[in-house]
Structure prediction request, 848 residues.
Amino acid sequence: MKLLRLAPESTNFPFMRFRRVSYPFSALLSLVSVALFLTLGVNFGIDFSGGTLIELRAKAGTAEIAKLRSIAHGLEIGEVEVQGFGTDTDVTLRFGLQDGGDAAQAAAIARVKAAIGEDYEVRRIEVVGPRVSAELVQSGTLGVVVAVIAVLCYLWFRFEWQFAVSAIIATMHDLLLTVGFFALTRLEFNTTSIAAILTIIGISLNETVVVLDRIREMMRKYRKMPTDQLIDVSINAVLPRTIMTATTTLLSLFALALLGGHVIRSFSLAMIWGIFVATYSSVFICSPMLIYLGLRSETVVGRAPSAGSAATEPPAP
Amino acid sequence: MLRLATWKIAAIVAMTVCAVLVILPSLLSAAQRETLNAYLPSFLQTRSIVLGLDLQGGSHVLLEVDTPSVVKSLIDTMRDSVRRVLREEKISISGGIGVLPRGLQVRIPDAKDRAKVMPRFLSLAGPSGSGLAEGSTAPTFDVTEGANGVVQFTVTEAGINAKLRRAVDQSIEVLRRRVDALGTTEPNIQRQGLDRILVQVPGLQDTGKLKDILGTTAKLEFRLVGEPGADPNDIEMLDQTEAQGQLPVEKRVMVQGEDLTDAQPGFDQRTSEPIVNFRFNIRGGQKFGEVTTENVGRPFAIVLDGKVISAPRILSPITGGSGQISGRFTVEEANKLAILLRAGALPAKLTIVEERTVGPGLGQDSIDAGKRAAYVGAGLVILYMLVTYGIFGVFANIALLVHIAFIFAGLVLLGATLTLPGIAGIVLTIGLAVDSNVLIYERIREEGHLGRSIVSALDAGFNRAFATIIDANVTMFVAAAILYFLGSGPVRGFAVTLALGILTTVVTAVTMTRMMIALWYRYERPTRLPI
Prediction:
């Protein structure tokens, strides 16, 4: 049987030469992301901004967004964002916290329900109070920071410091670009988005670790080879795996984004973007960084092999 | 590589069989499962996967005990105790008892008087003396003597926390009685953190009613209506629910809601208006009898949460220990009030700080969409592995299916909740799970190209890829673990499936495929690598 190969049998791309292009390119993208975040900001969902979300489905016919907008406008509950999503029967209403505590939120929901009448089925109601949303922001930020630090420690323990630093730089790059993605696409940024970001961090490091593992192995093998050439050989060696894994993960994620329903669509789309960015950065950002950080074969060979590297050798019979 | 311990094969096969056995009951209906459980010993009871509220529909309401009101009630109780002590010891103070934001202060000019009451004050403020902070050894109040004979009581953090903890415990009991009265199945009510209560009610349609029932304190008091010419300090003006304007009501409470033993909705025999019939316990009945005997002809106020429901006139002494509340209720209101009175009052004010309700329609849609995405995602990955790796792809795919079975079995055994993000996590691990196989296979190919023999290439592939697999999965696992500890609700479901998926993939992708390839080599004796 003829088997499918997405990557050619043996490649020899001079990846390291691209760093003169990829670094300015990534720097530009990162700057654009920061600029987007600072000017547009991300579209915080009620998880982080506090407020009420009501999802409606028209019982018969299609949802009339314009009509709902004018109804909502007359309710005096502040600005109501009325949004459709993909289907012509479903619509969400979103409005900010009302003054006057939980009773006021409940009253606002009752007003909305009364105003829309019997034409719509209420499919979902979410109310997040100010203290909870503040805590969610806090725990979300804390989660991302703790994840980065924890993984940094692990990498420091398992690899030379140059590896750890470049892995973190690549991860930060992915993080920035993901935030930029949220700012640009206006996808709702909520607690599942934090889940997406943490998973992207995990995947980004997963990619990076696979490349770094191979670079380290090659450094032990070819002590005389110049670093940039050595990194090129390593990346070319893991390239089939990188493409293969990115493809299988993307297949699952596209299935989720297209079929998984609107509730997790923003999660799936962010993850798809994350896979592209993470794959790109492990090759074009993280690996060249090793050269800038002055990693040489002697640095790796000079150190006593760590516990994990012993496992890469065939076990004694 | 090729020599495989029989026990390893046996263990893997046994684990797979167990996983399938654990999952199968989830495919049965609840009734079928019950029949099955009747035939099984207690340690073998079958369980099904717990679906999150976002999938089965229902309400998730997070309530918070209002700390300022708890502090205020602590201070109020202390003020009454201090006043009582001063009265009993006949001690004169200058300027009354001052209430501060975090405590009280009282000025006792005479040093001898101070010396006399200080020990009693200290015992009031202590954990045992006041009885306010049971189970804690720290005092509820710090009592300090300042200049000019001022004695200051400052409520302590430990005192507030102990009180909050008790308020949460008592509230959970009350809320459980109230939610049970709604007739919903399997509500989940639990403490969250120091001062919060999580109420999860599956499948309830009318959330307005639920929130109403959760958020009402339901503190019922019977008090006399103040007469003209009474001391203004003993009277407060209260709003009325069914009439305009305020009513002067005595601060002194005749009988409280906690002295009720029963409350049932009913109809007034004369007016056919919905009412609530109640019965007092012995103490409440006696007290009510005494007060009504002494005050025939005067109106008394039935006060619920600081609002007067009605103020009927006492026509004759009520000594039977029962009575009725009328307040121009609708049938529904009378029902609700009866439920609230039966369940008892909340010890403190509760505020709803978060609510997430998913209707059953959306829940079912989410299940369908999640299933579709999972089938298509898994199908595509399986197909792709097949066309890329041929027979080795078949091995990876078998491992993938076992991996999915392990995740579900893990969910059942842990009693973890499957949420929509959790399904997303499973779909994602389907994509990620084959990564370990890809790492191994690509390594085998590479080693084969270097001119190694088949056995040697297989061996090197597995051994060399192993460290990378561990490193790569540890980083993912760290992310999932952090998500678990910091996330809540549905997101936590994602963390669980992701973490489970990472753990099982190491078993299935490494050990299982290794076993299958070893068996394949033994029977096939291939002359060249199939990938």
Summary: The first helix of chain B runs from residue 6 to 23. The domain at 6-56+361-524 of chain B is CATH 1.20.1640.10 (Multidrug efflux transporter AcrB transmembrane fold).
